[in-house]
Task: inverse folding
């Protein structure tokens, strides 16, 4: 048996094991934000993925070249085809398990940005009300008072003039108390963006 093949057969899965342990330690469990501490881990994953791909291609290429020299060509070709099929199946399975959880679709990114915008804008409206003892009459009041540089863009409608503002029922202090997206579309969570 070839000692070099055994060595590579242990090194590559061992490397993936170390990377998975590193991912379990360093990647945030339920965060949708990109952490800078994950950059070295992602670089290691890409480098190890390339090394694995090169090693597999070389292994199977050399194995197919060896086909001419083996006495039982049919059995060897069948075994090699089985190995290739298993390798491809495991690769597809791992990609389908791990890639969707770490890759964010553009729609999910816009939804996350909307959640952040709504959270920040509601906090700013409350801060404006507490500081000035009056509620803003428009989003432009927040800009003029220096609480924001400009009215943010609604990530769903991609415009900054479609925000739906909620007004106070208090006649002593009228003004904006809430802000929502102006979109009536349904989110990936099944609720309307307008109801967030």
Result:
């Amino acid at each position: 048996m070839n000692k070099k093949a055994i060595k590579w057969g242990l090194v590559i899965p061992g490397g993936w094991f170390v990377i998975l342990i590193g991912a379990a330690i360093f990647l945030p469990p339920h965060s949708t934000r990109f952490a800078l501490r994950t950059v070295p881990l992602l670089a290691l994953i890409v480098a190890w993925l390339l090394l694995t791909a090169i090693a597999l291609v070389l292994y199977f290429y050399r194995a197919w070249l060896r086909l001419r020299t083996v006495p039982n060509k049919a059995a060897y070709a069948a075994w090699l085809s089985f190995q290739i099929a298993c390798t491809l199946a495991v690769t597809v399975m791992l990609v389908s398990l791990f890639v969707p959880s770490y890759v964010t679709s553009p729609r999910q990114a816009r939804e996350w940005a909307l959640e952040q915008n709504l959270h920040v804008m509601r906090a700013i409206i409350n801060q404006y009300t507490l500081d000035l003892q009056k509620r803003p009459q428009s989003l432009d009041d927040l800009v003029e008072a220096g609480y924001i540089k400009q009215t943010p863009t609604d990530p769903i409608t991609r415009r900054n003039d479609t925000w739906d503002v909620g007004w106070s029922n208090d006649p002593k202090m009228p003004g904006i108390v809430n802000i929502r997206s102006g979109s009536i579309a349904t989110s990936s969570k099944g609720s309307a963006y307008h109801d967030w």
User: Anything to note?
Assistant: Residues 106-195 form one domain.
